[in-house]
Amino acid sequence: MSNIQLSQHFAQSLQLQKLGESIAYSKENIANIQAKGLVGSALSFMISSAFEKAETPFLIILNDKEEAAYFLNDLEQLRKEENVLFYPGSYRRPYQIEEIDNANILLRAEVLNRINSRRKPALLVTYPDALFEKVVTRKELDRQTLKIAVSDQLSLDFVNEMLFEYKFKRVDFVTEPGEFSVRGGIVDVFSFSHDEPYRIEFFGDEVDSGALPLTPLSSLEGKHVGMQLATGERKAYTFPAIPTAVYTTPQLAIVGLTEEQAKTEGIEYKVLEEHVPDWFSIKRLNSPDYCYKTIKGPNDEILGAEILAPEASEMINLFAMAIQQKMTCTQFRETIFAYPTFASDMQSMV
User: Fold this and answer.
1) Cis status of the peptide bond prior to 288, with omega within 30 of 0
2) Phi-psi category of 274—alpha, beta or left, where left has phi over 0 and alpha has psi -120 to 50?
3) What is the side-by-side order of every strand in the sheet holding 270-275?
4) Hey, how many other C-beta atoms are within 10 angstroms of the C-beta on 241?
5) pLDDT per residue rounded down to tens, the chain (350 residues)
6) 296 Cβ partners below 8 Å, 6+ apart?
7) Any idea where the domains of the chain sit in the sequence?
8) What's the whole-model pTM score?
9) How far is the C-alpha of 244 from the C-alpha of 216, rounded, in Å?
10) Which of 67, 96, 300, 347 would staple 62 via disulfide (CB 3.0–4.6 Å)?
11) Going by CATH, does the domain composed of 244-349 fall within 3.30.420.40?
12) Cα 107 to chain center, whole Å?
């Protein structure tokens, strides 16, 4: 049976019709609704069907992050992804405020903006640790939001000061939420309200153009073009190892050559791949989702890597650095990493 057929079966059930009536009643009256006897993904099908008919926001609180992630995955298969939002905790580990996860802050900001905008209802999936964190009020969120449009009269110094006040970090090239860079009359900002950075161009004290998404790669390409224009030298651009990550739960990341690309280019290679749910770093999280695929070259060099793991987006950066610096697998294994961590696991991947 397909997901569509199962959803139709749930939608036609008498129990779901009664649930819909109870939800409609609870909008105007305080009511406790209890659903029992649901196993496996039955709860996901029931919630999905009920949400479709109720036209009201649903807040779904699971026991912990892992359980919430599994439930989120179910709902994303059943509903349009823009109607399913994940509200995680800000920290890599509960209440350890020195280890903030900017990707999670981005997800939290997306949920708060969705609620604040009062757009169409959504399914919000979360867990107690995430809900226990304090958030700003709607009034404070509006006050702390800087809105910029083309032709606005705004000085670059003012924007610079505001970003520092908002605790943004100034860097050479923006790579993650909470960073900004300034080069001449160009400001690149990676805000917590969008999954890509923005570029704002100033002409004097006027915003000349803005809201143009960019990537770290485009910044490097722009610098290369600028250097050639300034010096008159013509040199081909050599692309670095470019990592890519998908911020699902767990995360999926890739860098370098895939097996298919190595085969097409006639490169001699060896594949190392394994599903490793018993490694300590993932076992302590009680999650089975941990696997990797590494492509090795004929001279022991790392050609590419693919990772599915909770911290894949961070792990892939280490592989990108190793590929860029032309490290051999032996050199990578000889590097000392803190243990036990996902980074230390990578030595067993090569």
Assistant:
1) no
2) beta
3) 244-246, 251-256, 302-309, 291-296, 270-275
4) 21
5) 566 666 666 666 666 666 666 665 555 555 566 677 777 777 777 777 777 777 778 888 988 888 888 888 888 887 776 788 888 888 766 555 556 777 787 788 778 777 776 667 788 899 998 888 887 777 777 777 777 777 778 777 888 888 888 888 898 888 888 888 887 778 888 887 777 788 888 777 677 665 444 566 666 666 666 676 777 777 776 666 888 888 888 899 999 999 988 888 889 999 999 999 989 888 888 888 999 999 999 999 999 999 999 889 999 999 999 998 888 999 999 988 888 889 999 999 99
6) 269, 270, 271, 272, 302, 303, 329, 350
7) 3-138, 146-231, 244-349
8) 0.47
9) 11
10) 67
11) no
12) 7
Q: Which two tokens stand for residue 163?
A: 């970003």
Closest CA to 46 of 4, 15, 77, 2: 15
115 token code pair? 């609620």
How far is 153 from 159, CA to CA, in rounded Å?
11
Q: Which CATH number applies to 3-138? A: 3.40.50
Q: Is the separation of the CB atoms in 102 and 90 below 8 Å? A: no
